[in-house]
Amino acid sequence: MLSLSECIRTFLFRYKTLLIWEFHQFGRIDVDDDALMGHIPNNIGQMQALEKLDLSSNMLCGSIPSYVTNLTGILVLFMDTNYLQGTIPFPSRSGGMPYLSFIRLHNNHLSGNILPLLATYDNSFSSQIPESIGQLSQLIMLNISNNLIEWSLPQEMSTLQNLQTLHLSFNYLNLSSIPPWLTSLSSLSRVYLAGSGIKDQIADFLQTTQSSIQELDLSENLLNGLIPSWIGSLSQLYLLNLSRNSLDSNIPESLINLAILGVLDLHSNKITGSITGVFDIDQQGTSGGGLLTHINLSDNIFRSGVEAFGVGEQLNIQYLNLSHNFLNATLPSSLGKLKSNHNLDLIFNELPSMSMQLILL
Q1: Mean per-residue pLDDT for 99-105?
Q2: pLDDT greater at residue 308 or residue 240
Q3: Which PANTHER family did the record assign (predicted)?
Q4: With b meaning 16 or more CB within 10 Å and e meaning fewer, what string describes 240-275?
């Protein structure tokens, strides 16, 4: 049985949830992480003045009402991290939600069938993301990761020329390959396609992208073969995550050209050889890599190269994981220069007297 204080708190939460929807002249509603519960009502479509709606990190359930597309002035729509189910609404006509720039719907239980969404339509269901998503011409960020969305991505997404962040990770897309039209998105800088069923080698056409890729996450896919050397030409790349694939051979030395690379995650692959050629900055005669803070090369087949760390400009590494490899060299004294390091993992290697070496660093 609930205590009196719990009953009062529950009533206040529910009353606050109901009260919000009665103020139709609000231009902005920010109630993220505010313990809201219940369903999103249909009269949400009456809030014609609304420009920002942030309902993230609450306890909202049920479906997203189709009337949300009546919010013709909406710029920002955040409903992530709730218990929402059913379909994702997108406008099915030109001019619907024309200013919508930011969408966050991740961490829900949204399904793969996308409603074409107009109240005058017959509310029939489609088996894929509708072509009408191309109508959201002002879209800057699309994050619908960690849902149950399936099928493929429509070619019409290639018209989203203002899109900067595309986050579709961990759905049931089964893309097989990276959509070629990604290279035509001139503003795209952050691409997250983790757990999307992408197979075979990393597509070469990514090197022809018209935008400056800053973050690329293709982790937990079915990629194999080499890490292509052309990745070193992505000069604005800050984050590269290719972990949990079946990539093999060596790390290409061209990665040293990534002068602002901060996060490198290649763990759980079949990459072999030495890491010296990439990280021995002094020998390479360049100052690239000085921004590296996070490196995870664990669960591979590396045998040498630990001497590369802690030299040159690489003094800012906070996380370094080389565990579960075949490293067998003596740890260099330069490793002790990593004063910023808060997490060093070298377990399950073949390092001689590792504990004593670490004490002496």
Answers
A1: 85
A2: 240
A3: OS01G0149700 PROTEIN, RECEPTOR-LIKE PROTEIN 16-RELATED
A4: bbbbbbebeeebbebbbbbeebbbbbbbbbebeebb
Mean pLDDT score, 192-220: 90
Decide whether 1-141+149-160 matches 174-361 in CATH topology: yes
193 CB neighbour count, 10 Å cutoff: 26
Spell out the residues 6+ positions from residue 122 whose beta carbon is closer than 8 angstroms to its own: none
- Its pTM stands at 0.78
Under 8 Å between Cβ of 331 and 357: yes
Q: Mind listing the pLDDT tens digit for each residue in 68-77?
A: 888 888 888 9
- State the residue for tokens 């993220």: 32
**pLDDT for the residue numbered 284:** 44
Residues paired with 124 in a beta bridge: none
Burial of 340 (0-12, 13-18, 19+ CB in 10 A): exposed
Helices (H), the chain: 4-20, 276-279, 281-284, 354-360
Classified by CATH at the fold level, domain 174-361 comes out as: 3.80.10
On whether the 1-141+149-160 domain is CATH 3.80.10.10, my answer is: yes
Give the pLDDT confidence score for residue 241 in this predicted structure.
98
